[in-house]
Amino acid sequence: MRAVKRPPNMINIDHLTFGHVPSTPIFEDFSWRVGGGEAWCILGPSGCGKTTLLYLLAGLRQPVGGSVRVEGRVLDRPRPRTGLVLQDFGLLPWATVEENVALGLQVRGFYGPDGRHAPSGGDLSPVRDRVETWIERMGLAAARSQYPGQLSGGQRQRTAIARTLALGPDLLLMDEPFGSLDAPTREGLQDLTLQLLAERDLTLVLVTHTLEEAAFLGRRILLLGRPPTRRADVVENPRAGSPKFRQTADYARLCRELRTRLGAVA
């Protein structure tokens, strides 16, 4: 029988140490792997290092020891094909939806496809066309001329996601992206995120403080406890994102398990 070829790891963290001197290290000799196309959630109590780990993956912070590799390369700066969606949306308040979605593409246009600020050999279609595609895909056509202060929370988050995906990332990092939204809007954006992952063949690492969100979105869940974290505590969740999973006994069982395990590490 022909062996199935496993996808290569998108992320390799080897013997990572990171902390703020003279505080206790947040991570100490920590190793972790993320395969290409996987959907991960990072879950843990406040102060455990969830956002810090995301910033290390984004190249916005550097390890004290060990290494962070993405696609086999040591990460020493932000990577052009990594998309980051922030908790507070990160939109320019003086720019319209259309202008905010175009922002990253315009910055890339200044540098050109140099392989450092923008991927070499990326999408060369006109900025206007790419912006239009994502405004339509994210259901923002009616709000395209509005400013962030005129938008609902869900519309602001859709704008932030559109701006990120217009850049054509293969790795999507999200920092508690739906935490400030009401339940129906949050669940709708969770469903949309899963659709986009499948359409674009993205690898996802999403930070959340909500165990129900981790149980629905994360096919694999990384549990972090009080620092220093020395090993990857992983919960497998193969049914994540499947239709009506939120209504199943397996989902309720997993939520109970996560609540118990979080209580033990908090």
Overview of the molecule:
The strands form two sheets. The protein has a six-stranded mixed sheet with strand order 6-7-8-3-9-10, sandwiched between helices. It has a four-stranded antiparallel sheet with strand order 2-1-4-5, with no helix packed on it. Helix 2 packs antiparallel against helix 3 and helix 2 (97-111) packs parallel to helix 4 (153-165). The protein has seven helices and ten strands. The N and C termini lie far apart (46 Å). It has 266 residues and is of the alpha/beta class. It has helices spanning 50-58, 97-111, 127-137, 153-165, 183-200, 211-217, 249-265, and strands spanning 9-18, 27-35, 39-43, 65-70, 73-74, 82-85, 171-175, 203-208, 220-223, 233-236. It is globular, with a radius of gyration of 19 Å. Strand 1 and strand 2 (27-35) form a beta hairpin. It has a domain at 93-169.
Quickly list its features.
single chain, 266 residues, alpha/beta, 6-stranded mixed sheet, 21% strand, globular, disordered N terminus
Termini gap: 46 Å
Poorly predicted ranges (pLDDT <50, ≥5 residues)?
1-6
Give the helix level as a range of percent. 25-40%
Strand tally: 10
> How are the strands of the largest sheet arranged?
6-7-8-3-9-10
- State mean pLDDT (0 to 100 scale): 89
Sum up the overall morphology in one term: globular
Task: State which percent range the strand residues make up.
Answer: 15-25%
Helix tally equals 7
Q: State the oligomer.
A: single chain
The succession of helices and strands, N to C, reads: EEEHEEEHHHEHEHEEH
Radius of gyration: 19 Å
Give the biggest beta sheet.
6 strands, mixed
Structural class: alpha/beta
